[in-house]
Amino acid sequence: MPAPSEQPEGAAPAFTRIMLKLSGEALLGSQEYGADPERIQAVASQIARVHARGVQVCVVVGAGNIFRGVAAQAAGMDRATGDYMGMLATLLNALPLQDALEKEGAPTRVLSAIEISEVAEPYIRRRAIRHLEKGRVVIFAAGTGNPFFTTDTAAALRATEMHAEVILMAKNGVEGVYSADPALDPTAEFIPEISHMEAVERRLRVMDTTALTLCMENRLPIVVFNMNDESNIDRIVCGDRVGTLVRT
Fold it and tell me: How many alpha carbons fall within 13 Å on the CB side of residue 138?
């Protein structure tokens, strides 16, 4: 059996359809804000490699690199207004990711929960499923289209609607789920596997509680992994145990 980082190109994938949740920070690269074109291309290359294996790929991307509604609220802005601005900001990440994916040879469609027909298709569940069946990567932008819901919740909702088999939760520089924040607590222990309920009860930083509960109710497993290792997505899709597995 090949080493995990040396999966053969013809290795059979363990999943048919996946949801990849990317934070906006995953596109920062070395920049303090905005999106780094080289980083976007590197992420697109990882997704395209999995897509080339015949896996149907959905993507939800956040906008923490551009705008956060909570930060705006703290500055005095109404939370709903800030969240709508954050939804629009996700399009600023989805469009360059689409461009990068198509340069890698992966046909891609951006579907937006907020209608903006000049640059993205409106989100229609059956249309999204049809795109996946036709071999297109589908990027879901604008969250759920509603304020007070995070892109984590959007990922859980869309994954459920698309009948994805797993959510791949990309983290920056963190190998998975820990008993505490490893950046603040040097005694934090890595957790290789945990249930949805235990993650909720222990308030672990997997995803927000609404999203985690939705995954639990629909028995949707989550793999939390380090996005900085460019082989990880491919390894997970090939069935390797990477990061932390969250399941019912």
Answer: 30
Mean pLDDT of 58-81: 77
For the chain, the structural domain boundaries read 16-246
Please answer whether residues 113 and 141 qualify as being in contact, where contact means their C-beta atoms are separated by less than 8 angstroms. Answer: yes
- Please name the residue ranges forming H helices in 15-167: 37-52, 69-74, 79-103, 125-133, 151-161
**pLDDT range class, residue 73, cuts 50, 70, 90:** low
Give residue 2's pLDDT.
40
**What is the average pLDDT across 223-243?**
94
Predicted model pTM: 0.91
Within 8 A by CB and 6+ apart from 203, the residues are: none
Choose among 122, 143, 120, 137: nearest CA to 60. 143
Check residue 139 and give its pLDDT: 98
Cα 108 from Cα 104, distance rounded (Å): 10
Exposure b/e, 20-51, CB count within 10 A at least 16 = b = bbbbbbbbbbeeeeebbeebbbbbbebbbbbb
pLDDT at residue 29 in the model: 76
Q: Which two tokens stand for residue 114?
A: 């907020």
CB 105 within 8 A of CB 81: no
CATH number 3.40.1160.10 is the correct assignment for the domain at 16-246 = yes
Pick from 160, 246, 230: nearest CA to 198? 246
